[in-house]
Amino acid sequence: MRYFSAICYLVLLGLSANVLAESVFVNDQLRVGVRPEPSQLSAPVGVVLTGMKLEVLERREPFIKIRTDKGLEGWIKDIYVTTKVPAILRVKDLERQQKKAQQALQDVIKTKTALEEANAILNEQIDTLKAQRAELQRNRAMQIINRARTGSGAIILWLVVGLIVGMILGYLWHRHQSMKRLGGLRI
After folding, report:
1. Considering only 21-25, 71-75, 140-144, which range has the smallest mean pLDDT?
2. What is the torsion angle, in degrees rounded to the nearest 10, for the CA atoms of residue 79, residue 84, residue 86 and residue 87?
3. Please, what are the domains in the chain?
4. What is the pTM assigned to this prediction?
5. How far is the C-alpha of 69 from the C-alpha of 53, rounded, in Å?
6. Shortest CA distance to 82 belongs to which of 50, 108, 104, 105?
């Protein structure tokens, strides 16, 4: 049972070390030799380059034990690494962002050009429709004027006839009222 507890403890300790692992980067323009021991006397087993992300496994001043993304483990001097992202990686990231922004700008320019062309076509259609409307209004006005000319004689005739009939009816009414007042006498 003691062995089981010890094994569980070691497994948890190993897992927590990976969770709490610190990440550092090789700074400047460097090629740093990775050594199997924390000493400058041992021959390098690999090389890490500027911008590589390294996982810190252990620290022994002035060395740190690292692991690369490809699984290479070894020791390097801590003066060659930094926790800040190196300028070369920031520049590459900014270049990617710039390319995306330039592509987005090109897309906006293409869209703007297409919208300007569509706007020009629509303005031409509006001008055509305005011209057609003006022509229709002129035609309608001419029709109204022509109807008034042909019907104006009939209107005047009806007005004259209405005036004459009104005068006759007025005269008859007035005569009728006068006879009533005078007791049936004719004037």
Report:
1. 21-25
2. -130
3. 2-85 (2.30.30.40)
4. 0.43
5. 7
6. 50
Sheet containing 53-60: give its strands across.
73-77, 63-67, 53-60, 22-26, 81-82
Q: What's the half-sphere exposure (Cβ side, CA atoms, 13 Å) at 180?
A: 6
pLDDT in tens, 22-56: 777 665 667 888 888 888 888 889 988 887 889 99
Q: Which two tokens stand for residue 18?
A: 């990976």
User: Both tokens of residue 117?
Assistant: 């062309």
Hey, what are 166's tokens? 């009104």
Q: CA 122 to CA 114: how far, in whole Å? A: 12
Max CA separation in the chain (angstroms): 158
